[in-house]
Structure formats: structure tokens, C-alpha cells
Amino acid sequence: MTKRLDGRIALVTGASRGIGRAVAKRYAAEGATVIAVARTQGALEELDDEVRSAGDTPLVLVPQDLRKGDDLDRMGLALFERFGKLDILVGNAGVLGTLCPITHLKPKDWDDVIASNLTANWRLLRSMDPLLRQSDSGRAIFVTSSVAREARAYWSAYAISKAGLEMMARIYAEETAKTAVRVNIYDPGRTRTRMRASAFPGEDESTVPPPESHGDRFVELAAADCALHGAIVGVDGVIEG
Description:
Layout: E1 9-13, H1 18-29, E2 33-38, H2 41-53, E3 60-63, H3 69-83, E4 88-91, H4 107-134, E5 139-143, H5 156-175, E6 182-187, H6 194-199, H7 215-222, E7 231-234, E8 237-240
Parallel strand pairs: 1-2, 1-4, 2-3, 4-5, 5-6, 6-7
Antiparallel strand pairs: 7-8
Helix pairs in contact: 3-4, 4-5
């Protein structure tokens, strides 16, 4: 392996399963020091065991609920004291919420989806921005969905949260245009995850690509030589931007 991320510091949210887990493993295999963030301590430890068994760089495990914004500020300070910078930020963690008519959605379910998928990423970005600017090639990647760009019945809170996330990332891209930071949005499309299984029960998962199929794109977007900025990228290349 080329070790394209050798020596770089990467933070990946939602690292205990699905796409986040696959990205954390791939980044570690590419030589990065990965700060793996998720709510479940046990799942993070299992992931770290796999990374160590493969002979790759051990992970820095952070069991953290991203909805607790003040804790994210403290995490940013701790990372600054330990590393002095952050080279790669992957905002992947998210929740699906309830799929139902928008007028039937309970306020607490709306609040949880918006808090998890949008507000948490803003708080994370707010905390990590100074660290990304300390890198000679900071990279921020936010994971979205095609429903952010289409009006799909019953997907209200999730779709709106992802639309907001895309706008947040694009605004940040505008604000960092004259810096060494590059900001992009990744739309994985159909992927074999627990979230998709909840949204499409009964689907033959053997027909759906696994999370590991996105590894190359995440490495390309995280690499120091990535020139894309403010783009929405999919498996097959640039979708917008």
C-alpha cells in the first residue's frame, strides 16, 4: 500500500460501524493516526483490535456523544494540546430518524435528527476549524445523501438535515477559499449499512455495495494533493462543483 496519509492526523465520527468504521480502518492502513469518535466504547475497542491486528497505526479512541457540544470544544482543546493540528476531518455520524409524513413527525424526533446530523457537525467544525488551519493541507469531508437534493416523501427530518449540512459545508468552503483547507461533501449512494437496512427493510443486501467500497474516494479527498474544493462527490466522481 502506498501509505498516502502517512503521518497525517485524521478525525472520523461515527467510526464504530458502517462507512465511518470502514474509513477509520482504511485511513489507519494508509498510515494516518486516526481519532475514532463514536458513542459506543466497546465497538471502538473492537475496531482498534482489528487495526492493531492488521499491523496498522493504533487508533485514538474517543467515546463521545456529538450532541454534547461543550464536550466537542473540550475535545478540540485536547487534540490541540496533543497534536497541535488536525489534517483531516470526516463528519460522517448521523441518524435516520422516523420515516413518516412530515406533519406526523414528533417534535422530539425532529430535534434529535437535526441535533445529530446538522448541529453536531456545526459544533464539530467550530471546534476543529483552528486545528485544520494549523495543517499545511487541512481537509474536511462531510457525508451527505441524495435526499438532500430531492424532495422525497416521508424523509423530512433526515433530508432537511442533510440539505443544511451541504449548505454549511459549502459556506465553510467559501470562507476557507484562500487558505490551505479544502472542504468537500461525499454522497455515498446505496451502501450496505444498518441505517439503510432500517430504511429499506427486506432489501437484498447482497445487491448493495459494502462500506469498504468508498475507501478510495475518502483517501483521495483526504490527500494533501486533493485540489477539489466545495464539491459534492460520489462514487463515480464529481456530482456538483
